[in-house]
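RESIDUES AND SHAPES:
===
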Amino acid sequence: MRNPNGYGTVAKLSGNRRRPFIVKKTVGWNENGQPIYDIIGYTATREEGNILLAEYNRDPWDVDRIKITLGELFDLWKEKKAPKLGQANRSSLLSAFNYCVSLSKCPYKSIKAFQMQETIDNCGKSYATQGIIKNLWGHLDRFALELDIITRCYSDLLTTTPAPPTSRVPFTDKEVKTIWEHANEPWVDTVLIFLYSGWRISELLALKPEDVDLKEGTMKGGTKTKAGKNRIVPIHSKIKSFVETRIAENGPTLISYNGKSVSISNYRAFWSDIMDRLGMSHVPHECRHTFETRLDSAGANRKCIDLLMGHVSNDTGNRVYNHKTLEELKATIELII
């Protein structure tokens, strides 16, 4: 049946093509009286072409915008949206695009859920990296939705390998005692700062001298969550001298080496050397587990623990109504012996 005038048409192109049907609509005429077309898209079958043409006529879209590829959308997102994210989150999302690059020349509107899922399933990485790839697709979908490129978010259908049960093992009291016995050895002070403050490795290494108030006896920092950002952690009396010594080095960050900040990868090398020397097998994050475990064992108030850890309290009453003073936090952290 003939389409109405101005409706558009679906025509088959010559040759052996994966999508041989062109969907187009006349938008004007040239000086020779020949039609000028807007190319709406290409399809594998005439039926798909008619469906695409019907969708376009029901809700016309910007043809140039609808042709935007994954790579072009990503570049635009990187310019417009990525700068508003935290540095660590932005960096991980930008890196995750490497696993999606095979689709970079595909029009974003044509990318289906199974293709997004394949970038996750075929990445060959752990659940953490899979989660970042999924997160990136979510960001791009929402941006594409905002630009009227798509009408639904396939990223909502994506799945990742579930996170394994935690295998973190806190330091024993005997191990903490052993670490104190070696406190004067290189870098061991940082292990003790971890154990008595609960910082994540990225958080402690990011602390700058101006984040430390020796007079008030506090450190201010934190990343990752709203509750964890810019939190106040009192300096435990046992590690005060270590913090003062580090500040006196006048490095760009609290934990510096040869006048420069220490990267996570470099610190892990120092950490590995300490663990080998002391005959232990722990990762830096287990200091954080140890910190929370020792506070809990000492009978610390749950709200205080959550504030020090940068966690959101599960109990609504604690989360909304329970306000703790700095003095209470100082008293709580001194419960660790």
In short: Strands lie at 9-12, 21-29, 35-43, 212-213, 218-221, 231-234, 256-257, 260-261. Confidence is low (pLDDT under 50) at residues 314-323.
